[in-house]
Amino acid sequence: MRRIALRRAAGAVILVAVAGLVTACGGDDASEKAGEKLGEKLAEQAMEDSGGGDVDVDVDGEDVTIESEEGTIAVGSGEVPDSFPSELSIPDGEVVSSVDTPQGSLVTLDVEDPAGAFDEAVADLEANGWTRVMVTEAEGTKMAQYSKGDASATVLSDDASGQLTYTIGTA
User: Has keyword Signal (predicted)?
Assistant: First the structure.
């Protein structure tokens, strides 16, 4: 059930993005707002038609929020998700995207030193009582998985893109 909801949400985000791209060519605020509203309505209708129940989609610039009976999904850039555990620190960098769902949160950062940011995030997890499940490394990419109670954490760094992705999952 949740997998279907997330696919619907992903479809909605794509619809909203397409509507935004179409109207972005117009260049003024009025056409941008009109594109956001069109994208919202198209996404809501598509999700409701596919059995998603009552769905509300809100677009605010680069941020998209999808609300239904199953919960809220927020996708955006520039900010760490509200649900990200406050006891964990985020390595220095520019937040380029974030996702906040009832099942967890994800933040992607542009960082100067992906390997260093990875090491910092992993050290912070361990200092906060998370248990290492596995760590792997291959050609400029590092990935670590941790657990703590019913929660899970994944940290992924990529030297080629200069990014670090930090995912926290909750049960």
Answer: yes
DSSP run (H or E) holding 63: strand 63-68
Domain span at 33: 2-70
Residues 100 and 160 in one domain: yes
Give which of 117, 166, 116, 164 is closest to 146, Cα–Cα.
Answer: 166
157, 114 Cβ separation under 8 angstroms: yes
Residues 6+ apart with CB under 8 A from 75: 13, 63, 64, 65, 97, 98, 99, 100
Whether 108 is covered by a domain: the verdict is yes
Task: Give the model confidence (pLDDT) of 20-63 as tens digits.
Answer: 444 344 455 665 666 656 666 666 566 666 666 777 777 777 77
